[in-house]
Write a structure and sequence with these properties.
transmembrane helix; 55% helix; transmembrane; Marvel
Length: 197
């Protein structure tokens, strides 16, 4: 959601006229087109990355290969870590350019959008660092079998397994039973000829 706020506010109100007469639109962040483009790009990458990893998390339990699970977690860890860095750069870059902006009539119109983009880029740093830490925690779990069976996590661990139901005829006092097929097998059964090669 933070990424939508950042790139949405820059796209909607991040380009203004320098003065009321000039039809040319300039970036509100000190007229630096790179600042607006960078904020929009990081916001869009973060938005689509969130959608991808949301779908990956939905299907994570259906990935049976430990190697594929490990790759998915490493991809999540790398993506979250890199976006933490990209949002940090975006926050510093946008805040620096906003500080250098001379306040003209056009800049006053988009000032709230610029402040919102800077604020939510800062909050995005915190969110993506938290996501990177969660991915690191998931990576450290490794091949823990609880990742494979979530339905068994809800069971109470203090309750022992139920015994085999009585009265089914399975109980026996014999300690050894003879095998079910006691006939000796003939080396060549009747009607079958061993082929000679």
């Amino acid at each position: 959601i933070f990424s939508i706020v950042v790139f949405g506010s820059i796209v909607n109100e991040g380009y203004v006229n320098r003065d009321g007469q000039d039809p040319e639109l300039l970036c509100i962040f000190n007229g630096n087109e790179s600042a607006c483009s960078y904020g929009i790009a990081v916001g869009i990458i973060a938005f689509f990355g969130c959608i991808f990893f949301l779908v990956l998390d939905l299907y994570f339990q259906q990935i049976s290969s430990v190697r594929d699970r490990r790759r998915a977690v490493l991809l999540d860890l790398g993506f979250s870590g890199s976006l933490s860095f990209l949002w940090f750069v975006a926050f510093c870059f946008l805040a620096n350019q906003w500080q250098r902006t001379t306040m003209s009539r056009g800049a006053w119109q988009g000032a709230d959008a610029a402040r919102a983009a800077i604020t939510f880029s800062f909050f995005s740093i915190i969110v993506w660092v938290a996501l990177a830490l969660k991915a690191l925690q998931r990576y450290r779990l490794g091949t823990d079998m609880s990742l494979f069976a979530t339905e068994q996590l809800a069971a109470d661990a203090g309750v022992p397994y139920p015994g085999y139901p009585g009265g089914s005829g399975v109980e026996s006092t014999d300690t050894y039973q003879s095998p079910p097929f006691t006939d000796t097998l003939e080396p060549n059964p009747k009607g079958y000829q061993v082929p000679a090669y």
